[in-house]
Design brief:
The complex is a heterodimer of chains A (147) and B (133). With 147 residues, chain A is an all-beta fold. Chain A is 0% helix and 47% strand. The radius of gyration of chain A is 16 Å and the shape is globular. Chain B starts with a strand and ends with a strand. Classes of the chains: A mainly beta (147), B mainly beta (133).
């Protein structure tokens, strides 16, 4: 067996033709047909108010790993005004985007260097709860969840 | 207002000893509100030669700040073929054959372009943006 990630994008009214996309990917090691067998597990964390405007590492990178990894993050808030900023790169602080209440992301992650951490900060001081997970092929101690 | 649903299911019977079954569903709405996104670039396809290093797929200058969502899929079936995805100068990751990605994009700076770089000639990427403007 393997690990699969399936996305469905559906709408009856975003265009005159509607929208119904479904895609399933089997998660493989970089450039191979070998399955990824490591995971951080599904974690749950409340990003507290002191992160407002100050991103903190959520998933830690390691130097020049370059292997395949998939990152899943979900904002479990139910208040539509609450979001988390997701950035990549400790040095660059490059913003990817904002995950609003209920939103999720699933993206590849290469960990090009030790600065390629994935960081988050919350929009509110009352805290926002996230669920997140990395499925990867990284050597021991190269991927860690920042607790 | 349109209603667009994005759902993900991550499943495995053997990644860990407990069966893995994660499901998440979201309705695509504007930044900080409950209004469904009504604009999209449509589902597109782009064939790129390897010489198209860092091809700008979405130009940050062309979009305002917002809760945009990006969908990408590598249509290749050859395991070694991948697209490297960058935002501005920061590498996000590599999308290998059959892989897809879905992530928010705020485009809060003109330089926040989403760039793709194919590893081989004539690779085809499928892509779509949901626009919050």
């Amino acid at each position: 067996m393997a690990t699969t990630a399936t996305i469905s994008l559906a709408s009856a009214d975003i265009s005159g033709d509607g929208l119904a996309i479904t895609n399933a990917a089997t998660l493989m090691k970089a450039g191979t047909t070998s399955e990824m067998v490591q995971t951080t597990g599904l974690a749950k964390k409340t990003i507290t108010g002191n992160t407002v405007g100050t991103p903190v590492p959520l998933v830690l990178s390691a130097a020049s790993n370059g292997g395949a990894a998939k990152v899943y993050i979900a904002n479990k808030s139910e208040d539509p005004t609450e979001y988390i900023n997701v950035t990549i790169g400790t040095s660059s602080g490059q913003e990817i985007g904002r995950l609003y209440a209920g939103d999720w992301l699933f993206m590849p992650w290469t960990q090009t260097d030790a600065n390629a951490d994935i960081l988050v900060d919350a929009s509110v001081t009352t805290g926002i709860t996230l669920e997140y997970m990395v499925i990867h092929e990284v050597a021991a101690n190269n991927v860690g969840i920042n607790l | 207002m349109a209603t667009t649903i994005a759902s993900i299911d991550i499943n495995s019977t053997d990644l860990v000893s407990d069966k893995l079954s994660i499901s998440s569903v979201t309705t695509l709405t504007g930044a900080g509100n409950s209004t469904g996104l009504i604009q999209t670039g449509g589902l597109g396809r782009k064939k790129l030669a390897s010489g198209h290093a860092e091809y700008t797929l979405f130009d940050g200058d062309a979009y305002g700040d917002g809760a945009h969502k990006i969908y990408l899929k590598n249509t290749s079936s050859a395991a070694a073929e991948h697209f490297t995805i960058k935002i501005n100068a920061e590498q996000m990751g590599k999308l290998y054959a059959g892989d897809w990605a879905f992530f928010p994009w705020e485009a809060n700076a003109d330089t926040n372009d989403i760039k793709i770089d194919p590893s081989h000639d004539d690779m085809v990427l499928e892509y779509m943006i949901f626009i919050d403007e």
